[in-house]
Amino acid sequence: MKQPISLIFISLIILSLIIGCGGTNKSFNVFPVSKDVELGSQVANSIDEQNKKQLLDSQSNVAIYKYIYSVRDSILKNNTLDHSKDFAWRIRIIANDSVLNAFCTPGGYIYFYTGILKYLESEDQLAGVMGHEMAHAEKRHSTDAMTRQYGVGILMDLAFGQGKGQLARIAGNIAELGYGRDAEKESDEYSVRWLYNTSYYAAGASGFFQKMENTGGGARMPEFLSTHPNPTNRIAEMKKLWQSLGGKPGKTYQERYTAFVKTLPKQ
Ligand SMILES: [Zn+2]
């Protein structure tokens, strides 16, 4: 079928922009913010569908979701996020104790497996991991990575109105597999910065990395470690940033976290 000449023209212009920027300009993102929202909703629908049987229903697990949303709210209420209003910031828990992972789609659909919730030991660790995941959405690491890794092909698909499903699949894969070193570093940084404005110990996520290092994650290596062979550096970086912000001790809320974990379904 003959493509309209204007579409070809526009896509060539955008193509030259992508090639011009290459992967060197970190902030270059070819997608509008509305695409993060649209893609996120598609990815979340497909994840929900794939995990239908394991997804903890928010209607019948009210206390569990109330607790986990309260952690999210302390991050959102005490910080100014660019996308606090236009992203979903929805949380879903997948009942699978063998998966040590959490991830966030574009547009702020956050997922925790019961495996990681039971592995974490205190609420500041949960808040730290959540802050890290939320930063991936807030800083638009998915569409940023797609622009860098898949830019040309995806753009041609988009320009000619094809490959929408493929786009959502790629976004989903990136969310689960990791975004690359720079993005992980930025997410670690925002996790500490955001938690610093709450009552939590701001380097909460470092407690998780410490446990991973002590006990080993093996095949259960989560997304946020996948692109980092050395968690020791991340622990040190997070603590350094916490110190530079003033080193406020903050709280771990270990007891109430242990109580929360006991309410999670047994696998
Ligand atoms: Zn990450």
Structure description:
- The chain has 267 residues and is mainly alpha-helical.
- It has one domain (15-262).
- It is built from twelve helices and three strands; from the N terminus they run H-H-H-E-E-E-H-H-H-H-H-H-H-H-H.
- Strands 1-3-2 form a three-stranded mixed β-sheet, with helices on both faces.
- Helix 2 packs across helix 7 (164-177), helix 5 crosses helix 8 (181-196) and helix 8 runs parallel beside helix 11 (231-245).
- The longest helix is centred in the middle third of the chain and has 19 residues, at 141-159.
- The N and C termini lie far apart (53 Å).
- Mean pLDDT is 82; it is low at 1-25.
- The site of zinc ion has 6 residues, from helix 5, helix 8 and helix 10.
Key traits:
61% helix, 3 strands, mainly alpha, binds zinc ion, 267 residues, three-stranded mixed β-sheet
Give the helix/strand layout.
Blueprint: H1 5-21, H2 33-50, H3 62-77, E1 90-94, E2 102-104, E3 109-113, H4 114-119, H5 123-138, H6 141-159, H7 164-177, H8 181-196, H9 204-215, H10 223-226, H11 231-245, H12 254-262
Parallel strand pairs: 1-3
Antiparallel strand pairs: 2-3
Zinc ion (ZN) binds at residues 132, 136, 184, 187, 223-224.
Sheet with the most strands? 3 strands, mixed
Q: Share of helix among residues?
A: 55-70%
| Structural class by secondary-structure content | mainly alpha
How would the global form be characterised?
globular
User: What's the overall average pLDDT, rounded?
Assistant: 82
The side-by-side strand order for the widest beta sheet comes to 1-3-2
Q: Are there runs of 5+ residues with pLDDT below 50, and where?
A: 1-25
**What's the total helix number?**
12
In N-to-C order, the SSE pattern is: HHHEEEHHHHHHHHH
Q: What integer value in Å does the Rg equal?
A: 19 Å
Strand count = 3
Strand percentage lies at under 5%
Number of domains: 1
Q: Are any ligands bound, and if so which?
A: zinc ion
Distance between the termini: 53 Å
